[in-house]
Specification:
mainly beta; single chain; 3 domains; five-stranded antiparallel beta sheet; globular; 392 residues
C-alpha cells in the first residue's frame, strides 16, 4: 500500500517487536501477541506535548484499543518531570513544555496491569527552520501538469542531514450547483420546496499526510533542502478555488531516521517476507520488568519548523478553466418512459433519492432537474465550519 497512517503501521509492526534486550522478533502471521504501541514526537514547540498509547491489533482488526489508565511521564537530566494525563485517545502533558538543546529526555510508562517501559535518553536534534514553502506549476515524472509544493531550508553548520515531513492541507469548496430552493419530502410523502440553507454552499475540506515523508542530505555537498512535499494534479478539484497547506519539518537523529525509513520500506513492500524486507524494526523503548512484555514504537525528540502558505487557482492558472468538480454535476431528471428527444436519464421514483439525500433540487422547467448531492450541498463532502486560521 502506498497511502497509510503512521499509527496504522505501528500497530501492524507490533507483530514483530522488540524485547527488553532489543532483540528483533520475526513476523508471525499466524500468531497474535499483545503489545504496547507508542507514538510520539516531543518537539521544541512550547505546548502541551502528546503521546499516543494503544494496544496492538490483529491484522484483520479494523479498530485499535487505547491503552488507558497508564502512568505516563517524561524526565530529563536536569531533574524535571513532566506528567501526562489520559484524555481518551491520547495522553497530554499537564503543563506546556518544550525540548531544549543539550538536555536528555526519557519516556516512562507504567500500565495499569503492572507492565513498565522506558525509552533510551534522547536529545533535541539541530534546530533548522524552513526558509520557504512555495507552490508553482510543474510536471510530475509522468509529464502530467500540476502544482508542485516545495520546501526549502538550509543548515549552514551541516549538522541536520535527516528530515521528516508532515503536512495538512485545507481547501475551499464551493458547491457549483447550489440554489436558494431545497426539495424535501414532507410528512405526507409529497415533494415540498423550502428555503435552502446558505451554509451548504461554501465548505472547507481537510486532509493530513499519510505517508512517511523522509529526506537525507548526506549525499549532498551542502545541507540544503529542496523537497517536493506535495504534487497536486491540475485536474484535482481541491485547488479549484483556494488552497492552503501547513508544512512541518522535523530534523531527526540518525537512529530516528533509520526507524522511520524501516516503516516506510515496510509500508511500500508488496510482500513483508520479500528478501529486501525481513520483517524487523528496531525502536528505542523497552520493558524494564519483564522481557516478555512487548512494545513497539519510538520516543522521538525532534526540532520542528512550521510554515503555512495559501494560493488561489487563478494565481497559478490565470484564465484557465478550473478542474472538474468532485463528482459529475450535469443536471438530470426522472421520467417513466423515453421522451423524444429524451432529456431524462434516471428512472423514478426520485422520492427515495431525495429522502436519502443523494440528490439535490436544481431547477424546474418541463421536469424537475436534479444534481448529485455534493454539487448542491458541500456539507456532503466537507465541513461548513470555517477554520480559525483561514485567510480569504
Amino acid at each position: 500500500m502506498k497511502n497509510f497512517k503512521l499509527h496504522s503501521i505501528l500497530i501492524f509492526l507490533s507483530a514483530f517487536i522488540l524485547n527488553s534486550c532489543t532483540e528483533a522478533y520475526p513476523l508471525l502471521t499466524n500468531t497474535y501477541e499483545e503489545a504496547l504501541v507508542v507514538e510520539t514526537t516531543i518537539t521544541n514547540e512550547l505546548k502541551n506535548q502528546e503521546i499516543k498509547l494503544t494496544k496492538s491489533a490483529r491484522f484483520e482488526d479494523e479498530k485499535y484499543l487505547p491503552e488507558s489508565g497508564a502512568e505516563v511521564y517524561i524526565t530529563d537530566n536536569s531533574g524535571n518531570r513532566y506528567d501526562f494525563e489520559d484524555q481518551s485517545d491520547r495522553y497530554v502533558s499537564t503543563v506546556a513544555f518544550q525540548a531544549v538543546p543539550g538536555i536528555q529526555y526519557q519516556l516512562h510508562i507504567n500500565t495499569k496491569d503492572g507492565r513498565s517501559f522506558e525509552s533510551s535518553p534522547e536529545v533535541l536534534s539541530t534546530v533548522t527552520p524552513i526558509q520557504t514553502v512555495k507552490a508553482a506549476v510543474e510536471k510530475d515524472k509522468e509529464d502530467k501538469r500540476g502544482v508542485g509544493i516545495r520546501v526549502n531550508s538550509f543548515d549552514p553548520t551541516n549538522k541536520s542531514h535527516y528530515y521528516r515531513y508532515e503536512y495538512e492541507e485545507t481547501y475551499k469548496v464551493v458547491a457549483p450547483k447550489w440554489v436558494r430552493t431545497k426539495a424535501v419530502i414532507n410528512a405526507n410523502g409529497a415533494l415540498t420546496f423550502i428555503d435552502n440553507d446558505p451554509n451548504t454552499r461554501i465548505c472547507y475540506g481537510n486532509k493530513k499526510s499519510t505517508n512517511v515523508l523522509l529526506l537525507s542530505t548526506t549525499d549532498l555537498k551542502e545541507d540544503r533542502v529542496d523537497y517536493l512535499i506535495r504534487f497536486i494534479s491540475d485536474q484535482d478539484y481541491i485547488i479549484t478555488t483556494r488552497y492552503s497547506i501547513l508544512v512541518k519539518q522535523y530534523v531527526e537523529s540518525l537512529a530516528a531516521f533509520n526507524y522511520y525509513s524501516t516503516l516506510k520500506k515496510i509500508s511500500g513492500s508488496a510482500s513483508l517476507l520479500s528478501p529486501t524486507q525481513p520483517g524487523i524494526v528496531l525502536g528505542n523503548i523497552k520493558s524494564i520488568k519483564n522481557p516478555s512484555d512487548k512494545v513497539v514504537g519510538y520516543f522521538d525528540v525532534a526540532s520542528v519548523s512550521i510554515e503555512r502558505i495559501y494560493f488561489n487557482y487563478d494565481d497559478l492558472f490565470l484564465g484557465e478553466a478550473p478542474p472538474p468538480f468532485y463528482t459529475d454535476c450535469q443536471e438530470f431528471c426522472y421520467a417513466d418512459y423515453p421522451f423524444s428527444p429524451d432529456p431524462c436519464t434516471h428512472s423514478p421514483p426520485f422520492i427515495d433519492d431525495v429522502m436519502l439525500g443523494t440528490v439535490n433540487y436544481y431547477l424546474s422547467s418541463r421536469f424537475y432537474y436534479w444534481v448529485y448531492a455534493p454539487c448542491g450541498d458541500c456539507t456532503t463532502i466537507a465541513s461548513n465550519v470555517k477554520p480559525a486560521f483561514w485567510v480569504d
